[in-house]
Design goal:
The protein folds into five domains: 135 residues; 176 residues, Rossmann fold (3-Layer(aba) Sandwich), CATH 3.40.50.300; 70 residues; 81 residues; 87 residues, no CATH class. The longest helix is centred in the N-terminal third of the chain and has 42 residues. The protein is α/β, with parallel strands linked by helices. The two termini are 54 Å apart.
Amino acid sequence: MVDAVVSFVVRRLGDYIIQEAGFLREVKDEVLLLKNELEWMQCFIKDAEEKQVEDPMIRKWVSDIRDIAYDTEDVLDSCLLKLGRGQTLNHNQGFLASITKCSCIFDQEMIDLYDTNKKIETLRKRISDLSRKRKFYHLEDNGSRREGTSNGLGKLKELRRVISFVVEENVIGFEDDAEVLLGKLLEDEPKRFVISILGMGGLGKTTLAKKLYHDSVVVKKFRRRAWVSVSQDYKTEDLLRRIIKSFGINHSTMDLEKKNTEDLERYLHNSLLKQSYLVVIDDVWQKEAWESLKRSFPDSNNGSRVIITTRIKDVAERSDERNHVHKLRFLRPDESWKLFSEKAFRNSTRDEKLEELGREMVQKCGGLPLAIVVLSGLLSTKKPQEWHLVRDQIWRHLRNDSIHVSYLLDLSFSNLSYQLKLCFLYLSIYPEDSEILMEELIRLLVAEGFIWQEEDQIMEEVPKTHQDELLNRSLIQIERVYRGRVETCRVHDLLRDLAFEKAKELNFVHNYLEIAHSNHFSTSSSCRRLSCQDLQILSYRPSNLRSIFLFSRGFRFLTEADCRGFRLLRVLYIQYYRATPIDYNSFPQEITKMIHLNSNSCVDLPTEISKLQDLRHLIGKFEGRLPIENLTNLLTLKFASYESWAKVNPEKLINLRELHINSYSVKDEKEFSFDSIAKLKSIRILCINCLEDDPMPQLEKLESLVFLELLSKSYGGKKMVCTSRGFRRLENLKVDLDGLEEWQVEEGAMGVLKSVVISKAKNSKLRVPERLGSLSVTTRR
């Protein structure tokens, strides 16, 4: 985990040197040296983190690195704050007063730079001290975690192999899956092909594979059968030797140890050449694992089969040119209860109260078989009066009771890149059972600086790959899809709990309620993010907070005093409800002094909002003045009235990509002009309503437009025309054509259009243009 934090800080140090050179010119050399020191520390962190489980000295060493990384970030952010990015003189003051003021600023700036320099020197000394301790205490040699049964990782790998091969007597919930896949194994297809079983950790991939592997008909059909568990850390030579042994092929152990990879491949290939075989390759994490093995398995047109189990979508889908992917589902409530009941009530008398507790806990398992099996086994050893204790801390009990649960979860996390680790930990900000808006999550991640753009990339498009990777690894599940994109997702409670525990351990995110109910505030003194739920008042205010998330129906709005304590804030997230009495006119002016604030969501805007130069998304119901002309980094504006938008000069909004304009009054309709829209060269998503003129001549010239939504009574005219060269990139069109009598779409217009949704009155005689006839057109009346 700490590797993710250090890598993030190293990246930010590089950004500081490049982007803030003007402010940090006097300390640039020190920052470069500090960055270099941290980069050297990175070389040892990953290995140290693996060892820290068993060695308290290493655990302390890793914790100290984390604190240095956080303190480094604090020093640089505080320096920028003191130097007053955007600090300006009052243009109305006199000349002599201006010179005096300027002189004071420069003197203070030198003091601040000197102070920053000394703090960076101290940080470097702390790193040097850690390096000395690492050598003095021989920490590299402590808690060795190399392959073997004498260490934790070796034991876990051996446990995985043993568990993978144990045959379970009764498998619930896989009857249909087993029937489908058994048919695939036995079908009359001579060519060898791969069956990939896909699903998140604990969903039962291995269990299903075992059921197939030991099926009597399968045993009879395949003369040779082998099973090998791969996991993340594998060696091809070791896998080949274990496969040969599992097949029962005659061999000398000594001869096998002497053979290199090429010899082992040839030996296995020749041994299977004239025989039908089934091999199960369990727990595959990389596509390269099967690629390194496949040439050892001949295709002799005798119906041989390969089963791969994986939680990685890409591995499942790209394993072979002849491949059947079978994605496992979560258990239904009735299946979950049946699986739970068979073991949980083995030693207890079932009564109404106990069953109610049981059903509540089973529901928390979310249909995950492993969680249900471990829970039922745990409760079978508990007295009835102890069940509610398990219920109160269900996930902690599951992890403590089953090393296999902890192993599966830790594998899911440790295999991620440091950017993905940060993204996954970030999921812990959301309350339990939340339906997470992907668009919102992406904006938050960008605002935090966890994801950055490479050359010629739009920052908000970069996280799409991270979103896909979390889905690919079964760490999040798709909940809703809209416009062909994932709109919302959910995190299984077991994985959310993993994110929450690791985030807390790292001081990455803390839950306010947990802090408020604890007397140990010191553990959260360096807390970076605070997630608050169901609070009336925010009384705990660590000064180094970078993000605050307010999920509540009853908290009071932030005051000036609150904001003064959060000067380093990057993200302020407020999830409000319509029933919440919030006075937006009293939005604290102190927020405009938070120079690091990257994301904001409010309604009635003060003029000082124009100072937030890094603001990227502005979402609310804006009916008054919009002082946004200078926000050149603004990407999203929702939802402005016609009157508000009419007073905006859009020429400087060069990066605006999404715009929603609504009519809140009859007066608004007369204020709107499409001339302003035509100046938005980067606009990709446009939603608008209540137009008097044909919008197409102006809109079709927008080269970047991808999604166009003309809302209720979009256009009151009789005729609308789209010319042959219009809408070159438009993919989605949603339009209300109430009253329209003629719509002309010339050949060549909307050349890449994928979907159209048209609303019109019941008595409308409008015919959909032939040009759109080949598309999937939805007509709503």
